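Hey, quick one: can you model this chain's 3D structure?
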Amino acid sequence: MACSPRRSLPRVDHFPSHAGALPHPRTDPGKPRRPGHPRAPQHCTVGYGYYPDSHQRIPTLRLRGRWLEQLGFTIGSRLHIRMRNGELVVTVADDGEKAPDKAANN
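Sure thing. Here's the predicted structure for all 106 residues.
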């Protein structure tokens, strides 16, 4: 099961005088957007997957979203995963090495 930002919070209208108004179009659509703040999920559920050629279910975590990229977890990055005090600690490997591109192998 994928983890995503929680959506159960009520929407807060920070600009009540503009309620229902559409946002103004960007003056320069070619200009890059200002980077947003990473919005990591607050909660997620451990799902399940299978090892190849096995019918035994195994716990699975699937994290996805632009927030990963904003935190430095870019596509192809190698990761270090450690267990510490009952927590998983995931960091980007410092060696700067990227994982091989799967598409290049096909």
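One thing worth noting: Residues 39 and 67 are 6 Å apart (CA to CA).
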